[in-house]
Amino acid sequence: MTDISVELVRTLVSEQFPEWGDLPVRPVVRQGWDNRTFRLGEQLAVRLPSAEGYVAGVEKEDRWLPVLAEHLSIPVPVPVATGRPAAGYPFPWSVRRWLPGETVEAATGLDRMRLARDLGAFLTALRNVPAEQGPAGGGHSCGRGCHPGVYGDQVECALDRLKDVVDVAACQAIWASALESAWPFPPAWFHGDVAVGNLLTTDGKLSAVIDFGTCGVGDPACDLVMAWTFFVGDERRAFREAVDLPDDTWRRARGWALWKALVTMAGLSSPDPEGAQSRILVQVIEDPFID
């Protein structure tokens, strides 16, 4: 993984965008895994891929975020400039408008029921953005937007590693149910990483959605995993009602949540030092809320 520091960002900005060279640079408190983000003054942010596998998202976001922003009522991060590799940093990078707010994972006074409804409405609006020329789900989206079956080998490997830790039969039944259907409609826009760190709130309400690096067009089931990773009880049902998608889509969504929990617990994905995915797996197994 590339070492990305304040000094590197300051050098890149000064050399390529001297008009912003005097602005202070500071890292955001909560960093993502795929990219590193830094504040640039008060109105801008610099976003740099952490490894080659995430580079495709730069050009994609530069191309499509302005288009999505025109159709969405909740703000998304619109790029204002794209930087080139330099100063020992090997990848393109971007400058965006800074969107204020606290992430859901850090927010206080959050209205969870309202978030369930607002997020569902946002995903519905995103799904309805014209998608004819959008990028089809694939490698650039880490398989999001494709059928969850693309990760069948990983699920099988994870269950083998975890056979003494998890309820293998229950997991296999959920996975089999997820594989029984496919998205029957024209490809639709999906975000690809709907998670607490990518949702911003202000005054307890959803105020922005960020990190579209794995977005594209295809099956939007991957965007529904918050039903198990965050929402509980009536919140789940409110989220489902706001999204307004059929049962088969939710079974594939449950498969996506199962896959992520298993591969993380088995050490096949990003680290999870606090063990959140094991707790999520309990929710996935115990509460289908769709049957």
Primary descriptors:
5-stranded antiparallel sheet; 37% helix; alpha+beta; 291 residues
What does this structure look like?
This protein has 291 residues and is an alpha+beta fold. Helices cover 37% and strands 14% of the residues. It contains nine helices and ten strands. The strands form three sheets. The protein has a five-stranded antiparallel β-sheet with strand order 1-2-3-5-4, sandwiched between helices. The model has no long low-confidence stretch (mean pLDDT 95).
Helical proportion? 25-40%
The topology string of helices and strands comes to HEEEHEEEHHHEEEEHHHH
**How many H/I helices?**
9
Overall outline: globular
**Biggest sheet, spatial arrangement of strands:** 1-2-3-5-4
Question: How far apart are the first and last residues' alpha carbons, in Å?
Answer: 42 Å
Q: Main sheet, how many strands, which sense, barrel?
A: 5 strands, antiparallel
What is the number of beta strands? 10
Beta-strand proportion: 5-15%
